[in-house]
Amino acid sequence: MLAVDGGDPPKTGSAEVVIKLEDVDDNVAVFSDATYQFSVAENSAVGSLVGTVTGVDIDLPPYNLVYYYLSGDEARGFHINPHNGQSSVPALPSIFVTNRIFTS
Ligand SMILES: [Ca+2]
Q1: What whole-number distance in Å separates Cα of residue 31 and Cα of residue 19?
Q2: Is 24:60 a contact under the CB 8 Å cutoff?
Q3: Distance from the CA of 86 to the center of ligand 1, in angstroms?
Q4: pTM > 0.70: yes or no
Q5: Separation of 77 CA from ligand 1 center, angstroms?
Q6: Where are the domains of the chain?
Q7: How far is CA 30 from the centre of its chain?
Q8: Phi, psi (5° rounding) for residue 30?
Q9: H or E stretch including 49?
Q10: Which residues surround ligand 1, an ion (CB under 5 A)?
Q11: How far is the CA of 59 from the centre of ligand 1 (A)?
Q12: Dihedral of the CA atoms 43, 88, 38, 55 (nearest 10)?
């Protein structure tokens, strides 16, 4: 940066300017796929892995941390690890009973 006075001839001074560009949380987490579809046997053991979802956020830390949560009534009986996106069979297997179609 230069500073110039009004003399004749003008005298100048200089200084170094350092600008540190800091990241802000301006990007949202996005999933690698728009839709995930998993299948699981109704008699799967509790804790069995159903599937894994993956999301990324291109911001710098800490604004790039991604946590996973399930939402909606249909997901109520399943568990997802908030840190790695792995969904598993819940401890309460009633989800399979409530979602089953019975025919007689
Ligand atoms: Ca972000």
Answers
A1: 33
A2: no
A3: 21
A4: no
A5: 29
A6: 24-104
A7: 6
A8: -125, 150
A9: strand 49-52
A10: 25, 27, 57, 59, 63
A11: 5
A12: 180
pLDDT in tens, 66-98: 999 888 887 777 788 999 888 887 764 433 333
CATH T-level fold of 24-104 = Immunoglobulin-like (2.60.40)
- Residue 10's contacts (CB-CB under 8 Å, 6 or more residues apart) are 4
Name the CA dihedral angle for 37, 43, 46, 52, rounded to a multiple of 10 degrees.
Answer: -10
Residue indicated by tokens 């401890």: 91
Question: Nearest 5°: phi and psi at 97?
Answer: -75, -45
- The tens digit of pLDDT for each residue in 23-48 reads 999 999 999 999 989 888 888 888 88
Dist. CA 16 → ligand 1 center (Å): 32
- How far, in Å, from the CA of 31 to the mean position of ligand 1? 13
CA 39 / ligand 1 centre spacing (Å): 31
Distance 74 CA to ligand 1 centre (A): 27
